[in-house]
Amino acid sequence: MTLNYDSALAIYEPTLGLEVHVELNTKSKMFCGCATEFGAQPNTQTCPVCLGLPGSLPVVNKRAIESSILIGLALNCSIAPFSRFARKNYFYPDMPKNFQTSQYDEPICVNGFLDVDVETDEGNKTFRVEIERVHMEEDTGKSLHVGGATGRIHGADHSLLDYNRAGIPLVEIVTKIVPNTGKYAPLVARAYVATLRDILRSLKVSDVKMEQGSLRCDVNLSLSKIGSGKLGTRSETKNVNSLRSVERAVAGEIIRHANRLESGEKIVQETRHFLEESGETRPGRSKEQAEDYRYFPEPDLVPVVPDAKWIEELRTLLPEKPADRRKRLQTAWAVPDKEMNAMVNAELLDTVEQTVLLGADPTKARSWWLGEISRIANDKAVSPTDLMSVNDVAQIIELISKGELTDKLARQVVEGVIAKEGSPSEVIAKRGLKVVSDDSQLMKAIEEAIAAAPETAEKVRGGNIPAAGALIGAVMKLTGGQADAAKVRELLLKHLGQ
Amino acid sequence: MSIRDNAWQMAAALSKNEISAVELANQHYEQIAAVDKDVHAFLYLDKEGALSQAKEVDIKRAAGEKLSPLAGVPLALKDVMTQKDVPTTCGSKILENWRPPYDSTVVTKLKDAGVIILGKTNMDEFAMGSSTENSAYGPTHNPWDLTRIPGGSGGGSSASLAAFEAPLAIGTDTGGSIRQPAAVTGTVGVKPTYGGVSRYGLVAFSSSLDQAGPCARTVLDAALLHQVIAGFDPKDSTSINQAVPDVVAAAKKLDIKGMKIGVVKQLSGDGYQKGVENKFNEAIAELVKLGAEIIEVSCPNFEYALAAYYLIAPSECSSNLARFDSIRFGLRVGDDGVKSAEEVMNLTRQAGFGREVKRRIILGTYALSSGYYDAYYGSAQKVRTLIKQDFDNAFTKCDVLVSPTAPTTAFKIGEKSNDPLAMYLNDIATIPVNMAGIGGMSLPCGLADEDNLPVGFQIMSPAMKDDRMYLVGGALEAALLSKWGKPILDFAPKLAGSK
Amino acid sequence: MAAISRDEVANLARLARISMSDAELDHLAGEMDVILGAVARVQEVAGADVPPTSHPLAVNNVTREDVVTPSLTPEQALSGAPASSEQRFKVPQILGEE
Question: Does the keyword Metal-binding apply (chain C) (predicted)?
């Protein structure tokens, strides 16, 4: 019989472990001054150092160290008073020196934790994920496999290497084993990566774009029989590159492990690859013999010995924790949960906050960014912040609140700004979008509307207030929509003795 | 003006316009053409580059520009230093025809100082060896006796000086590769304090031991070159960010009255040739005459230095040499469109590396591998601590330490090439300096009675006190010169065709 | 007893990516045995109380500012490559797995 997720968890308890690689967003590489632009032409961001040419030597990027310490502090880690780089020796064509400059037994940060919230059957529950270490290392180049049908490594007849990515600073964040998550293991894994991503984003140390590979996750999973107290053999699933995939990979591995164990097969300690399409994993190519990385202290670099003063200076740079900030903003803006989540999920919280800080009403700021602007951004497949600046939006909202723009006019202004016609005021001027607030001009239109529909005007005079709607509509039409409807209504009713 | 002059004399002649830099370079190329077929000091001559560099110096001088003291003086560069667009082979087949796209910091400094780089000199492959027999391009011959080795790994650099093919040279010293060749060729070689000269562009053998330094025929010449190449380099994290000691002033001072000079007990006796010990002792007598105080010091852990060195250096080299993989530069063997990248890599490294290099890569791979790390690499690091402590103790009692540079004079080519352990013993007296990262100099102290071949005298000074070895070296050199009546190289037989 | 077997040497050659013939492995195993016998002396004085020294310098925290400096041109970067194509380094098929 085949176990499904629920029946597997009736017998087995999963234990998680997560390794997250984060590409730092430094301007230059970890050990040389080459640029780190994503998507540059191949081999245009390389030098003797990151190509591993004979004679070249590394020099550590100070900002990479500071970013790593910031990450450690945000994850409640101790910052090591003495930390060193080590060489991890193994051959691979995308690794120029055939060793990776990494950290081994002397990482920069150790022993932290991250609390993550998961929605359980009993409501929100907090799980504490303990962090074992945060260490610095460098990224590898990229290989393009040519000649095979699929562009995959198998079947290719040769490969082409681009070392632009080689030497980009990476931080690896490794959790301790995460026990007792039960059936929530996939959700805990997902929430951990999501929370970590938020923190890294708030620290401004990485782009944390999973789809571009600037945040990559490896999932370790093992099962033990409930009550046995014995840890099972783990598998390591590499490069799980979206939050949804993290969740699916954990669930998939739980089912796979459970079924193997139930049929009496052993779990092989191995590296597996996550398949985006099926949500399953496949084994990596098994190595006949284990690698022996022969770590030793990197003799081309000196130790990193952060003193208390440096650490405290960095600590003052720590931003408010994303979860705390969210709570604070939600209260201040009086936003319901659902809409708060929408803002967070749309990654517009910062933008809305900045708009509010420029004086805009929170509700208006939220509805413009998540409504009209997001809709257009969606159509254009770009991000809302690519279309409008917070200044523009704040200005438009201000004009609305002063009565100088109607919502309808404001939409036209947004359209104009997006069409690059200029700033909101320029668009207003060019398109002539000012609200008609001149009473005499409005009165002229009102009289015209009454003259065109005397019976309706009589009804209003007779006390039928709702009948005024048709007249107001006519006035709006006559003014080309540039009148403030509330103002028209007020003048109209007064004119008709109401 | 003669090519037998010292570098400082050539510099003086250049500044007085008695000779142009172009003429001086050409005279050396003529000497190279005459003798290098026998000596084989050079792997590559960059005549075009050197002459255009020389011309530039001449133009600047004619225009009255202020020039560096060594501007226009020629130099031979060990082939382990990158020089942009000039072949850099490290004496290895795996780098045949590789032209680096960048200058090492030493080369940048030489170029900035107007020093004329004649060409690249022969060496043991990747600086692993003590005889220059491990070069993939054939051995260099000792100008004193062409059947003998010129020392190693920098045999090409020292031989070029002894054969008057160049008045200055650059060497690198990981376990004695500047000093031992200097000793067996009757020339001067200095390993500065670790971090004193940038390693950027020095193709690494053992990163924590490697150090580039000056080679010359006199102590003052070495000091002048030292001044040019030394100093902090932001491209080398292990470069020392401090002022370079005034080695030129020290070399000129000649007064060592009252200095305390320690003779290291452990660097004598068993394994040291009689004639080497005699000449060393005669030099000690000269130092006494100059007013120095001689103290015998004991460094008991030096006897473990050789063993520790042959673990640390191979360990680091096994990692440093991993990048020679047939992908980004250098040799590729066996790429037939069928073999995998891994197979091609294996075949390339098999074909491209010589025996000694492979021996050390395998040894280092072993010493770092799991299960053996603590017993081998780890223990060697502890020995390193003990050696440092021995030096620290000794330097509380004396200003410098001295010893013979090498236990023997130059041996015959082929004599030890099948016995790695016997070969390793050549470095027994030079290795402790590298282990501790301090400065060491070798200068000639006479000819051994039994074979009439040069003997080297080693002076060791504390870290960043490189001026001390120049002070003692300069004084000893002057005393010996007046005793001998002429420079030691004038005792060497004349090479066929030489001027 | 030999300190190192021929099979161990073969495994080291594999780790070091050097293809070696049987004859070469045999010869090297013999040499390695002698050399290891000699260098094992370090263990005599390497007591637990002795701290290791991995580097002669006692310097810490050497860093550079996060500033972009010019890279090589792709032509320069590829100038030493045994084979290249499409501005990339060309290598035979890679068997390993990322």
Answer: no
Neighbours of chain A (3+ CB pairs under 8 A): B, C
Distance from CA of A179 to the nearest CA of C (A): 29
Closest chain C residue by Cα to residue B335? C92
Q: Give the CATH class of C6-45.
A: mainly alpha
Q: Which ipTM did the prediction report?
A: 0.97
| Chain A nearest CA to C9, separation (Å) | 14
Catalytic residue among B20, B78, B135, B239: B78
Q: What is the CA radius of gyration of chain B?
A: 21
**H or E segment and range at residue B118:** strand B116-121
DSSP bridge partners of A220: A17, A236
Q: If you ran DSSP here, which 8-state letter would residue B493 be given?
A: P
Report pTM: 0.90
In B337-424, the DSSP E strands lie at 400-404
Residue A84: closest CA among A306, A309, A310, A308: A306
Tell me the CATH number at B266.
3.90.1300.10
- Cβ pair B158, B69 in contact under 8 A: no
**Nearest-CA distance from B80 to chain A in Å?**
8
* CB-nearest partner of A294 from B104, B234, B368: B368
**Residue A494 parent element (H or E):** helix A485-495
Return the H-helix or E-strand segment holding B35.
Answer: helix B21-39
**How is chain A split into domains, by residue range?**
5-310, 322-431, 439-495
Q: What would the pLDDT profile of B96-144 be if each residue is shown by its tens digit?
A: 999 999 999 999 999 999 999 999 999 999 999 999 999 999 999 999 9
CATH fold of A439-495 reads: Arc Repressor Mutant, subunit A (1.10.10)
B9 has which bridge partners? none
Is B207 a known active-site residue?
no
Q: Is the pLDDT reported for residue A411 higher than 50?
A: yes
Establish if C61 touches chain A: CB-CB under 8 angstroms: yes
Q: Identify the helix (H) or strand (E) that includes residue A8.
A: helix A5-11
